[in-house]
C-alpha cells in the first residue's frame, strides 16, 4: 500500500498524507461553485427539454445578472454606505437581477429563436451563437474588460465559522448553498405542482400534442425562458457575493460548465442538472487542490469529465436515453 | 419555364405569399416543382446576374472568383494592402474547411479554430528555432495535416452516438481547452509535470511559439509575402476544385442528405456516423493545413490568435457566402475580412458604416420614395433635435468628432455629441436595441416612420459609443448581430440557394 501511494506520489505529485482541513475547504468551495453551476444548468436543461435548443446565450445572461446586481448595489449607495441594511440590499439585488434577466431571456427567445422554430436545426444554433457574441461584446463595450468588485465583505460582513477540527465555512458559502437549494426546491414545486408546470411538462413531452390540447406553446416557452434566465441571474449575483469579482467575459466559461453540468446530469432532467452542477463544482475544486497542474488546468479536467461522460453514459446520470420519434 | 410562370415566377393558382417571394411553402407541390424556375425568373438586376452566373461552367466560376486575386499582386504595390490580400485568401481557405463541416454535412463545429491552431503549433514544433527541430516543409506539412485530421476524428468520436447539438458544445469546450493548454504549456511552475519526462516546454505559453521556419519545399524557399500569397492562392484553387468534385460525388450527395434530414438519410441506409466523422476530419485537415501556412506567414504561433473572435469571423464568412456554396465563401471572405481592414481608422469606418446603412435602406425599402422620405426625415429630425437640445442643454452639443474630416465636421452640426457621454451612451445603446426589436414587430407606414428616430439613434450611438472600439468589441457586436439577422431573414445565406421544405 505504501509502495503504491509513494509511486502515485512520484508520478502525479499528489500529497502522501491527506490534510483533512484542506479537504473540507475544497469540499465546501466545490459545493458553493457547484450550486452556482447547478442554477445555470437548470436554464439549459429546461430550455433543451422543451425546444431541443442549446441556448448558447445562457452564460451571458448569467453575466448580465451579475452586472445588474452590481449596478443595483451602486444605486443603493454602494457597499460602504448602503441606503438599506445589508441583507435587504442583497435581497433587492437578487430580485432586480432575476426579474431583469428573466425579461432579457424572454426577449432573446422572442426575437432570436422564435422566428426560427421551424427552420433547419442549425439555424437557431447559429442565431444563439450570434446573441452570445452580441451580449458579451456589448458588455465589453459598455462596462469595459476590468473586474468589478461587489465588496460583500463590507456589505454584510463575512464571518467564518470553525465547525470543529479546523473545518471552516463562511456565512456567504452557507447562504449560497442554502439559497440555491431553496430555489431548486421552488422550481421543483413549480414544475410538479402548478398548472404552468404541468403545461411545461406536457410541452416538453410532445409539443404538437400539447398545442392541440389547448396549451399556448409560445407562452410556455416564454415562461420557461423567464424562469431559466432568472435562475441564471441568481447564480450570477451569488457568484458576485461569494467570489467578489465580476467581469464582462465571465459568462463564457460559466455557460460551458453549466452546460456540462446539464449533460452530466442528463439533459432534460431537472434533478440531474442539480446533481451535475454539484459534481462539476466538486471536480473543479478538487482538481484545483489535488491534481497535477490543477490551478491552471482545472477547466481541462472538467472537459475530461464531459468527454468521459459522453463515452460511458451519453444520456447522463439521471437522463433517459434519447429516442428519436418519427 | 419562365414563360409559363409569368412575372412573379409563381404558377397560377398558388396564392401569393405576403412579405416576400422566397418563403418555402410547406406542402405546395407546385411551389417545390418550380423552385429552380423561380430563381431563373427573378426580376431585375439580381435575377439577370443569377442567370448569367448559372450559365457559366464551374471552371469559369473559379476563374472569375480567383482571377482578380491572381492579378491583384501585379496591380497593388503597397505592402499593407498586399498582406490584407494574403489574409483574405487564408481566411477563404480556412472557411472552405468549415463549409464542408457546416455547409455540406450540417454539423455545428465550434472548435474549428482549434484545428487551425493545431496546424500552426504542430508545424512550429516540427520546424522552428523555438523547438530546435527543422524539418523540411514537404514532410512537416503532411504530418501536421494528418495529425490534425486524426485529432478531429477523436473529437468527433465522442459525439457520434449523440444528437448533433452535443457536438457543438463539445467542440466549443475543446477550443477553450486548446487555448488554455497552449497558453500554459511552457514548462513553467504552474504547468503539468509529465510522467517520466517532467516539465516540458511545448508551446511557449502566453508568449507563443516563435521563430517558426519559413516553408522550404523540395529545396525552394518561400519567404516573401508575395510568395506566400501565390502559394496560398494555389492551395485555395486546389481545395476549391477538390471540394467541387467531392460535392458532386456520392459522398457529397450523402452529406447533403445528412444535412437535410439525418433520420431519413439513415433510413435510406446512408452510413450517417461514418459520414459525419469523414466531414469532420475533412474540415480538420483543411484547417490544419491552413494553420501551417498561417504559422509560417506569422513566423510564430500565438495563443491569442485562435479565439472565439476568429471563430465568429469564419462563421460569418461561411454564412454570408451561403452554407454549402463554394464560390460564396470567397465572396464572404472578401466582405467580412474587408470590413475590419477598412474599420482600422475611424474615418473609413464612418464612411463604411453610413454607406452600408444607406445601401441597406435603399435595398430593403420599396418603392423608391420610402427610403427617400426616411432619409430626408432623418436629416430634418436630426437638425430639429440638435437645435432644441442645443438651446436647452448646452453640454449636449459641446462634444467634437476627432479627426473626422469634412464628414465629421458636418456631422457635428447634426448629431448630438454630449461631453462626459458614457452613461447617456449606455442608455442610448440599450434604447437602440429596444427600438430595433420594436421595428421588427410593426409593419407598413408605421415602420417607415419609426425608422426616422431609430436611424438618428443609430447615428448617435455610433458616434458616441461604437466608434471608440471599431476594431474590437464593435466589430464582434456587428458580426454577432449579423449572424442573428441573417439567420432570421435568409437562413441560406446571401449567396446560397434557399432550401425547400416538403412536409
What does this 3D model show about the protein?
Chain A is mostly helical. Chain A has one domain: ABC transporter involved in vitamin B12 uptake, BtuC, CATH 1.10.3470. Helix content of chain A is 73%, strand content 3%. In chain A, the strands form two sheets. A two-stranded antiparallel ribbon of chain A has the order 1-4. In chain A, β2 and β3 form a beta hairpin. In chain A, α3 runs antiparallel to α4, α7 crosses α8 and α12 crosses α13. Chain A is globular. Chain B is mainly alpha-helical and 503 residues long. Chain B has three domains: 54 residues, no CATH class; 284 residues, ABC transporter involved in vitamin B12 uptake, BtuC (Orthogonal Bundle), CATH 1.10.3470; 123 residues, no CATH class. Chain B is built from 21 helices and four strands. In chain B, strands 1-4 form a two-stranded antiparallel ribbon. In chain B, strands 2-3 form a two-stranded antiparallel sheet. In chain B, β2 and β3 form a beta hairpin. In chain B, α6 packs antiparallel against α13. The N terminus of chain B is likely disordered. Classes of the chains: A mainly alpha (326), B mainly alpha (503).
Uncertain spans of chain A: none
Helix content of chain A: over 70%
Enumerate the strands of the largest sheet of chain A in spatial order, edge to edge or round the barrel. 1-4
Could you name the CATH topology of the largest domain in chain B?
ABC transporter involved in vitamin B12 uptake, BtuC
Q: End-to-end distance of chain B, in Å?
A: 25 Å
Largest pleated sheet of chain B = 2 strands, antiparallel
Tell me the number of strands of chain A.
4
Cα-based radius of gyration of chain A, to the nearest Å = 21 Å
Query: Strand share of the residues of chain A?
Result: under 5%
Main pleated-sheet profile of chain A: 2 strands, antiparallel
* Structural class designation of chain A: mainly alpha
Q: Give the number of DSSP strands of chain B.
A: 4
Approximate helicity band of chain B: 55-70%
Overall mean confidence score, pLDDT of chain A: 84
Number of helices of chain B: 21
Which pair of chains has the greatest number of interface residues, and how are they split between the two chains? A-B, 54 and 59 residues
The parts of chain B where pLDDT drops under 50 for at least 5 residues are 1-21
- Report the top-level CATH class of the largest domain in chain B: Mainly Alpha
Percent of sequence in beta strands of chain B: under 5%
- Secondary structure tally, helices of chain A: 13
Q: Kindly report the CATH topology of chain A.
A: ABC transporter involved in vitamin B12 uptake, BtuC
Amino acid at each position: 500500500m505504501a509502495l503504491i501511494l509513494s509511486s502515485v506520489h512520484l508520478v502525479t505529485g499528489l500529497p502522501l498524507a491527506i490534510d483533512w482541513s484542506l479537504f473540507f475547504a475544497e469540499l465546501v468551495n466545490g459545493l458553493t461553485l457547484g450550486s452556482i453551476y447547478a442554477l445555470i444548468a437548470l436554464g439549459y436543461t429546461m430550455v433543451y427539454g422543451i425546444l431541443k435548443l442549446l441556448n448558447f446565450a445562457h452564460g451571458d445572461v448569467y453575466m448580465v445578472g451579475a452586472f445588474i446586481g452590481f449596478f443595483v448595489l451602486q444605486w443603493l449607495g454602494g457597499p460602504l454606505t448602503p441606503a438599506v441594511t445589508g441583507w435587504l440590499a442583497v435581497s433587492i439585488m437578487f430580485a432586480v437581477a432575476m426579474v431583469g434577466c428573466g425579461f432579457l431571456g424572454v426577449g432573446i427567445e422572442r426575437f432570436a429563436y422564435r422566428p426560427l422554430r421551424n427552420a433547419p436545426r442549425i439555424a437557431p444554433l447559429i442565431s444563439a451563437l450570434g446573441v452570445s457574441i452580441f451580449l458579451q461584446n456589448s458588455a465589453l463595450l459598455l462596462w469595459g474588460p476590468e473586474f468589478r468588485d461587489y465588496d460583500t465583505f463590507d456589505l454584510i460582513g463575512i464571518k467564518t465559522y470553525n465547525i470543529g477540527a479546523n473545518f471552516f465555512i463562511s456565512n456567504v458559502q452557507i447562504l449560497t448553498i442554502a439559497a440555491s437549494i431553496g430555489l431548486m426546491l421552488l422550481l421543483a414545486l413549480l414544475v410538479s405542482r402548478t398548472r404552468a408546470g404541468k403545461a411545461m411538462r406536457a410541452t416538453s413531452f410532445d409539443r404538437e400534442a400539447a398545442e392541440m390540447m389547448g396549451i399556448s406553446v409560445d407562452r410556455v416557452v416564454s415562461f420557461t425562458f423567464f424562469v431559466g434566465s432568472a435562475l441564471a441571474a441568481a447564480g450570477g449575483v451569488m457568484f458576485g457575493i461569494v467570489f467578489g469579482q465580476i467581469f464582462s467575459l465571465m459568462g463564457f466559461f460559466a455557460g460551458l460548465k453549466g452546460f456540462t453540468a446539464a449533460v452530466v446530469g442528463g439533459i432534460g432532467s431537472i434533478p440531474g442538472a442539480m446533481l451535475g452542477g454539484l459534481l462539476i463544482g466538486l471536480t473543479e475544486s478538487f482538481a484545483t487542490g489535488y491534481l497535477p497542474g490543477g490551478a491552471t488546468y482545472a477547466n481541462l479536467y472538467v472537459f475530461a469529465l464531459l468527454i468521459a461522460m459522453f463515452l460511458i453514459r451519453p444520456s447522463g446520470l439521471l437522463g433517459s436515453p434519447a429516442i428519436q420519434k418519427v | 419555364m419562365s414563360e409559363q410562370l409569368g412575372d412573379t415566377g409563381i404558377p397560377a393558382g398558388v396564392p401569393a405569399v405576403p412579405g416576400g417571394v422566397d418563403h418555402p411553402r410547406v406542402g405546395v407541390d407546385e411551389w417545390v416543382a418550380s423552385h429552380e424556375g423561380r430563381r431563373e425568373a427573378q426580376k431585375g438586376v439580381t435575377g439577370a446576374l443569377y442567370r448569367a452566373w448559372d450559365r457559366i461552367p464551374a471552371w469559369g466560376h473559379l476563374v472569375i472568383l480567383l482571377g482578380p486575386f491572381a492579378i491583384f499582386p501585379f496591380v497593388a504595390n503597397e505592402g499593407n494592402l498586399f498582406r490584407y490580400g494574403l489574409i483574405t485568401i487564408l481566411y477563404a481557405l480556412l472557411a472552405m474547411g468549415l463549409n464542408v463541416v457546416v455547409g455540406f454535412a450540417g454539423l455545428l463545429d465550434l472548435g474549428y479554430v482549434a484545428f487551425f491552431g493545431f496546424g500552426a503549433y504542430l508545424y512550429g514544433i516540427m520546424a522552428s528555432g523555438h523547438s530546435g527541430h527543422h524539418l523540411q516543409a514537404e514532410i512537416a506539412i503532411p504530418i501536421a495535416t494528418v495529425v490534425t485530421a486524426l485529432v478531429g476524428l477523436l473529437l468527433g468520436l465522442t459525439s457520434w452516438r449523440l444528437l448533433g447539438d452535443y457536438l457543438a458544445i463539445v467542440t466549443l469546450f475543446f477550443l477553450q481547452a486548446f487555448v488554455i493548454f497552449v497558453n500554459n504549456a511552457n514548462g513553467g511552475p504552474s504547468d503539468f509535470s509529465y510522467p517520466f519526462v517532467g516539465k516540458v516546454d511545448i508551446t511557449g505559453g502566453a508568449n507563443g511559439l516563435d521563430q517558426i521556419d519559413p516553408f522550404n519545399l523540395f529545396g525552394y524557399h518561400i519567404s516573401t509575402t508575395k510568395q506566400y500569397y501565390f502559394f496560398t492562392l494555389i492551395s485555395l484553387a486546389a481545395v476549391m476544385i477538390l471540394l467541387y468534385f467531392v460535392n458532386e460525388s456520392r459522398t457529397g450527395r450523402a452529406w447533403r442528405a445528412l444535412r437535410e434530414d439525418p433520420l431519413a438519410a439513415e433510413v435510406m441506409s446512408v452510413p450517417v456516423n461514418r459520414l459525419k466523422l469523414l466531414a469532420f476530419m475533412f474540415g480538420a485537415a483543411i484547417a490544419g493545413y491552413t494553420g501551417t501556412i498561417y504559422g509560417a506567414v506569422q513566423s510564430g504561433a500565438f495563443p491569442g490568435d485562435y479565439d472565439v473572435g476568429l471563430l465568429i469571423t469564419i462563421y460569418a464568412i461561411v454564412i454570408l457566402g451561403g452554407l454549402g456554396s463554394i464560390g460564396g465563401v470567397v465572396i464572404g471572405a472578401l466582405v467580412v475580412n474587408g470590413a475590419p481592414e477598412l474599420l482600422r481608422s475611424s474615418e473609413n469606418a464612418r464612411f463604411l458604416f453610413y454607406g452600408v446603412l444607406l445601401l441597406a435602406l435603399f435595398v430593403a425599402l420599396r418603392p423608391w420614395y420610402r427610403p427617400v422620405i426616411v432619409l430626408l426625415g432623418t436629416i430634418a429630425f436630426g437638425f430639429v433635435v440638435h437645435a432644441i437640445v442645443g438651446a436647452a442643454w448646452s453640454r449636449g452639443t459641446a462634444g467634437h468628432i476627432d479627426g473626422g474630416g469634412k464628414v465629421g465636421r458636418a456631422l457635428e452640426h447634426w448629431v448630438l455629441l454630449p461631453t462626459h457621454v458614457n452613461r447617456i451612451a449606455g442608455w442610448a445603446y440599450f434604447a437602440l436595441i429596444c427600438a430595433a426589436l420594436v421595428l421588427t414587430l410593426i409593419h407598413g407606414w408605421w415602420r417607415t416612420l419609426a425608422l426616422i428616430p431609430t436611424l438618428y439613434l443609430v447615428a448617435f450611438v455610433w458616434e458616441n459609443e461604437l466608434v471608440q472600439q471599431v476594431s474590437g468589441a464593435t466589430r464582434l457586436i456587428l458580426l454577432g448581430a449579423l449572424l442573428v439577422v441573417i439567420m432570421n431573414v435568409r437562413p441560406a445565406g446571401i449567396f446560397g440557394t434557399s432550401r425547400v421544405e416538403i412536409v
